[in-house]
Design a protein that fits this description.
There is one protein chain. Helix 2 packs across helix 5. It contains five helices and nine strands. Strand 1 and strand 2 form a beta hairpin. The longest helix is centred in the N-terminal third of the chain and has 24 residues. It is globular and about 45 Å long. The chain has two domains: 35 residues; 154 residues, Glutaredoxin (3-Layer(aba) Sandwich). The strands form two sheets. The chain has a seven-stranded mixed beta sheet. With 202 residues, it is of the alpha+beta class.
């Protein structure tokens, strides 16, 4: 190779190196950014409802205690009563820790679940003590369900209609943020263990 060819080769390599350096500094070859997740689901948020005593409440009712929040309705033939019975048994298994827990039952049947209906239903001995029942207008109930990503749909006509709904129980931190979800048919001792573990983690 001639001296002139060597010179041109050196110039080309130098130019390519300089161009690569500029490209790197200009961000053309930026490394792929890593997207980090906080691990906290977007569940929960503001709501405006009334309790079984007719008192207006909002999301601040969840502050100060761990809350097991469940969406259901008083005419539910199976899922709702069994869930409430499971939560009652789990509450019993928690012992003194149960003082730091409240059960919140939000109706997805505002047409029939008046505050008085909720009060009568939730007073059954098999259900958790001091369970809080919440209802409201159809719009208020829909907004609360949307905040919790809870599904419900009226199924049927007349007085005997049912309401299809999601069956999860949401465990909420005393600061009102979502902690975990408890699946339907989880045995009471496992529910209690899950709640106890959440409480221990703060």
């Amino acid at each position: 190779m001639s001296q002139r060819s060597w010179i041109w080769l050196i110039v080309v390599v130098a130019l390519l190196g300089a161009g690569l350096g500029l490209a790197l500094r200009g961000g053309v070859f930026e490394p792929r950014q890593t997207v980090r997740s906080s691990g906290t689901a977007a569940i929960g948020g503001p709501f405006q409802l009334v309790d079984q005593n007719g008192r207006a409440v909002d999301q601040t009712i969840l502050n100060g205690k761990w809350s097991a929040v469940f969406f259901g309705f008083t005419y539910c033939p199976d899922v709702c009563p069994t869930t409430l019975q499971t939560l009652a048994a789990a509450e019993e298994a928690l012992g003194d820790k149960a003082d730091d827990l409240q059960i919140v039952f939000i109706s997805v049947d505002p047409e029939r679940d008046t505050p008085q209906q909720l009060k009568t239903y939730l007073s059954l001995e098999a259900f958790p003590r001091d369970v809080i029942g919440l209802t409201g207008t159809p719009e208020q109930v829909a907004a609360a369900a949307k905040a919790y990503r809870a599904y419900f749909h009226k199924n049927g006509e007349g007085d005997d209609y049912l309401v299809d709904h999601s069956t999860f129980t949401y465990l909420m931190h005393p600061q009102g943020r979502f902690n975990t979800v408890i699946a339907h048919n989880t045995p009471p001792d496992e529910v209690a263990a899950k709640i106890r573990q959440a409480m221990a983690g703060g």
